Amino acid sequence: MSQRPSKLATSPTRPSANGGKLDWILLAAIAIACLLRVVYIDGRELWYDEVLSLLLSTTQRISYGDPAGVPIALANYSPLLQLPPLDSVSDILKGIKPLFQGLVGREPHPPLFFLCQYLWLLVTNNQAIALRSLNLLLSLGAIFGAYGMGKALFNQRGGLVFAALLGLNPFFWFHSLNVRMYCPTVLWVTLAGWAGVQLCYQRPGRRLGWYVLLTLAMAAGILTYYLSALAFVALGVVFLIQDRQRWWHYGLCGLGAVGLASPWIYWGVPQQLRNVDLQRFANNSSWLETMVQHIQGILEVLGIQLAVGDWATGLPTAFVLGVGVLVSLGLALMIGQLWHLLRHRSMSLLLVVLSLGCLPLLLMLGFDILSGQSTLAWGFGRTGMFILPGLLLLITAWIVHLPHRWQMFAIATLLAVYLGLNGADMALRQRQVFQQIAATATPAESTLIAMNSKAWGHVLRLVYYFPAETPVKLLATDPAMLPDALNDALATAEYDQVLWLEAMRPVWKAPKADEAEQIRQDIEARLGAGYTLANRQELVGTMQLDRFSLAVYEK
């Protein structure tokens, strides 16, 4: 039977008198991480994908239709962002069917997160605080899972370091307050890792609960985010390294997880593969260009996940790549030091750490190469969300094997950098774009919003932030069609106020620069014929999808 790594492997030097002080610092860091989430839960308005999550979770995705190119009352869309009347348990169960139908139509993700958010809406409401509170709680569970995993693999100090790093990591902090499936992905990966590590080192007779947790966490991970299966493959390698005598036990857990997910795999996945646009990930470049893109993807995902976090949405790609190079060099030095320290003392521990820390990233890279796609850094690193726990575990392993006099410095430096990035993110990067647009409309007057985008994330955020009782109509078309559609709308109805909302990124059918300028001139000429320009402002959020030019015209 496998033996737990020697304490010598995780405590190469005798603990100093500062050990207790360091533990208190780590506990304080974990407490601050939890507090920051509570304080900033409503610090920003919903971003593009979050309002899509709300539409899916209310089970009304199949009822949504793109604007038809004529003015429509904005309030007509409001019911789509709320649960339909559910008066009984039977109604609640029946609501699951349209939720699933909405998912297989266009969403490339499995259902568990949206199902949980649907059930959460039953006991809360659709306000941002309520929506995000579920992921906030799940993120606390992930931090606790990181503590358990680190303690089981190293010692209590290792658990505290891992939990503090995950709690204050800017990338995870952002996604903890984000109504998407990325936060629970980290939860299931850390819980499965905790259960797996415990099983590798646990005495007989105390294993059943951990087997159950491992099975459920892997099933939940697959049903939350398909690519999290790559993290579970890396965990399987750990089982073969550390506890191969019981390989069939872990095999049964894996089969059990697949069995729990099989109804959706059988019914939902084939429909998603038919309906979802996967060509956006296609890579049609030459061999050399493809390799460069894969290397760039690795550097970007490392720089984003371990350093800049959501700041990446507003930083030049070159800067993010530069950070990625520095992070890569740092990880290489850490791996080199771990190799030097552990190759003779505890090779199995070294292989476990490297498997969990490096293998998920390498598996995703291999998946991209074999499938001819480029997904590694897609979505500012969130596609590879399941990679993050392993990377932070690798850093934790390096820290706990430092001499005690250097542990304090390394931990304090990393946590200070993370805390500074999060604090600056909260203070300097605001996203209140659609609230500003809603504040511009005059409640007592009839208002037309003319927008050069039919993207549902833009449309639904207007719906979400405009009061339902405001007499506002929306004219949303593809950019090239907006001048003619606006001309027809103003010829058939009178409006006291027109808000011309120009999206810098319309998402679909974006015109070239010269075409956009001509469209802009045509709209200004039409509005100038019957209205006076009262105000013009540039609205900027935290990402390209939040950039708009708002011009207010009054009769």
From TrEMBL:
Coiled coil stretches, renumbered: none
Every Glycosyltransferase RgtA/B/C/D-like domain range: 109-267
Subcellular localization(s) per the UniProt record: Cell membrane
Source superkingdom: Bacteria
Classification via InterPro entries: LipidA_mod_glycosyltrf_83, RgtA/B/C-like
Pfam families: PMT_2 (PF13231)
Topology within the bilayer: Multi-pass membrane protein
Membrane-spanning intervals of the chain: 21-40, 129-147, 159-175, 181-201, 208-241, 247-269, 318-342, 348-367, 379-400, 406-424
Keywords tagged on the record: Cell membrane, Glycosyltransferase, Membrane, Transferase, Transmembrane, Transmembrane helix
Main location per the UniProt record: membrane
UniProt cross-references to PANTHER family, sorted A to Z: MANNOSYLTRANSFERASE YKCB-RELATED, MEMBRANE PROTEIN
Protein name: Glycosyltransferase family 39 protein
Organism, as annotated: Leptothoe kymatousa TAU-MAC 1615
